[in-house]
Design goal:
Catalytic activity: tRNA(Phe) + L-phenylalanine + ATP = L-phenylalanyl-tRNA(Phe) + AMP + diphosphate + H(+)
Bound molecules: phenylalanine
EC number: 6.1.1.20
Number of strands: 15
Structural class: alpha+beta
Strand content: 15-25%
Organism: Prototheca wickerhamii
Distance between the termini: 59 Å
Number of helices: 19
Cofactor: Mg(2+)
Family: Belongs to the class-II aminoacyl-tRNA synthetase family. Phe-tRNA synthetase alpha subunit type 2 subfamily.
Amino acid sequence: MAPDVEAALLVRLDDQGVVEDSGDYASETGVDHARLVEVIKSLVATDMITSEVVTHTKLVVTEEGKGYLAQGSPEAQVFNALPAEGAVPLAELKSKLPGTVGDVGFKQAMQQKWVVLNKEASGPTVSRKAASIEDSVQSALAEAEAGRAEGLAEKVVAALKKRKLLAPETWKTFRLGKGPRFARERVKEATDLTAEMIAKGTWREVPFKPYNFAALGLTPPSGHLHPLLKVRTAFRKIFLSMGFEEMPTNNYVESSFWNFDALFQPQQHPARDAHDTFFLTRPATTPASSLPPDYLARVRETHQSGGWGSAGYGYAWQEAEAEKNLLRTHTTAVSSRMLYRLAQGGFRPCKYFSIDRVFRNEAIDRTHLAEFHQVEGVVAAEGLTLGDLIGIFTEFFRRLGLPTLRFKPAYNPYTEPSMEIFSYSEPLGKWIEVGNSGMFRPEMLRPMGLPENVNVIAWGLSLERPTMILYGIDNIRDLFGHKVALSMVKSNPICRLGM
Ligand code: PHE
């Protein structure tokens, strides 16, 4: 339809020079005015026509006025509600009429001297004074509704405006003329200079579309990084800047041995229960024969009867339990493999980190999923103390943008002492738990073959928690898992983790 509207308008302008009023033109040609305005704008933008705004005002009957147009003015309704002879108590009269009609109508009818108020001992009553009335308000509203408001006396209009029964309505139309680039027919402007134009020389006459240097380019379709990946990158940078090396984390499936036994976690420990751990059915086990036999024997010995000042757990350690395959429940399984490897080819002090996925058979809610990511740091050196642990954390969390820390004693089967780490969150106005930590026990380190004076400090935290805080996401299911809206990934801001 649009080209026809445009073509017809150009022909009209060419024939008559001007279109005085786009509103009249629209109703005359049966075109929707809003549609016509779109055509006008596009013609003005290319300088084919000119336009001037024409502002119109007319009086229209308000919603309240429309009600009286049908029912009569409030004063007429009051008059009509009274009997020809006799009086009605004022309260009863008002209650018979809807809304404010009784109040407004009574006042107006008194002013018009259509009714009188009688002071009786039992209370005020109202009776008719005029024999008959003429509802001039209703007839004035009818005139206005019929579009003849101009014919009404100024005084009448002023009174009806004051009573909010008439109100001015304004709208805009356009006066149109020919522009500097007017043409009876729109010529499509060329956007490209072609070889043909040059060969034929037509480029001299062809109108070219001017460049629009202010136009925004299209956003190139591209990949977007998930918030977890951005925060992971930030964590990685912090670790690397502090001299940590990344551990290989590419095995979601672990044997119970590395996930639990190597960590001196007893075989009856509740965390091993199938309620917390996803055990594999195929392949269900990693044969103990694939593990270094001497290390396996030392782990068994330590669980059963201790060593290095420990009494052990005093139970019969089962190889079959250690062989069970599972989805790793923490990245400390990765750390135990690395520390064992470190103890083999001669010890050197080192700092390791890992950031990867772990799995727990948990009930899913706003803050828990059955899989999430852990960030883990491990430092091994001679003579480390709890002071080193606190010092390293303080630096790590400071670089993360969490400078105010508190430590609380905690328990892990593989660390002693153990501490939960809390950070004061200014925006939340409270202490929040940000991590768990400790010094690995001799029962874990010595069977691996690490020298007696070597201590290992470690800590772990989830990647999801700081990400949710940074991105203002309060339901973990909006961040991770199959219910995530892809638009969240596209529109979330660049991470600004303090460093
Ligand atoms: N593995 C612990 C957890 O899953 C975190 C931790 C890592 C604690 C290292 C102490 C030392 O919560």
